[in-house]
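Need tokens for this chain, all 425 residues.
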Amino acid sequence: MEFYDIREIKSTSLSLTLENGKLEKPKYEKFRGKSFRVLKNKSWGFFSGMVSDEEGLERAERNCIEEGDVEIDRRSFEGDYTFKPKISTADIEQKVNLLKEVEKLLKNEFVVSTRINYIENIREFIYRNSEGSEIRYEIPRTGIAMQAVGKDDTLQFLSKRIFKPGGFEIVSGNEPFEMAEELSNKLEELVRAHKPPSGKMPVLMDPSLGGVFIHEAFGHAVEADHLIRGASILKETGIRVGPEELNVYDDPLKEEFGFFPFDDEGVKAEKKTVIEKGIFKEFLHSRETAIKLKGKPGNSRSQGVMEPIIRMSNTYIDEGDYSFDELVESVKNGVYLIGTRGGETNPATGYFHFNAQYGYLIINGEIREMIRDVSLSGHTLEILKDIKIGKEVKFEPGFCGKSGQLVPVSDGAPPTVVNALVGGA
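Here are the structure tokens for all 425 residues:
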């Protein structure tokens, strides 16, 4: 064999759900698994199972069934890292009480249902390979997600969440209660909101929507496996994709939900410059694509012990110079959109369609009445040409899906203004 690596994953998790005042049975889960990769005749063989290293490598080698053209970056790393939470222990009663207190703030006369989830997970990662790499790290992740459905003129849904690396301190401050109160107040307004306008117009995106935009509409096109399959609108680096003030980064070392010190191929994590002063600078790579495209590895991730694939971490638009008031004034007549309810994008064509949680009309440079069931769409490279970028980057956590795998990520942006097609969701 030309190369091998072995991964061992250990994780423990707890989830609590309070739905309409009823506490579901707490879910405790433990997982332990091993996976083995072997490179032979320039082709990968893969096996996962709780067996000895010798047996696992032998089975993976048997799965190298054809000759290929795979070459890899063989650099090796060593490291032992533990992310230490500020509050490492909290009893189950504290966590349940947190959910109940949050639920009280979510309720008002317009709310017909509520659901609150508390999640904590500790992941231990152990890696070694034929080049001498020996790596271990442990990361706890904790958070809370809340949602409510309201009814008046229309039936509407709103959600908010906090997820970060750390322990119970992530949710033990005022933030969950402030979020719950804001959600309840906005939902009361949203059930009576107006339908949105339609057509191409200036759109002020809040940090949550702007972060999802850069992740979904641009970030997936930056993953080098999409390029190799011919499924990316980006064909080469060094091209202008936006104005001078546009800078975009993917930074796994930022202590947001997508944090990791080493990727799942045992490569030390580092901040990647995706766009610098409007110029597209680099793709995100695995050990394999880094050799093919002369890039840097470090962005391979996996769910559990599945095969590592190229993924983002904490992807964000860096802050610009515009104040919020200047952005509103620049829109003049358009919309201010907040949050996201998901959507879809095609990295091969660059077209996207997202649904915002809600928004407001902007008339004569002033924010006016709320609008509901609103979406925006367009072509990524066209949208980025005229982007205006505000101050103060904020991050939104989530789980990104690709090839049947989910990994924790975070998307960030300051308030931004783009020109897009607006319509009903």
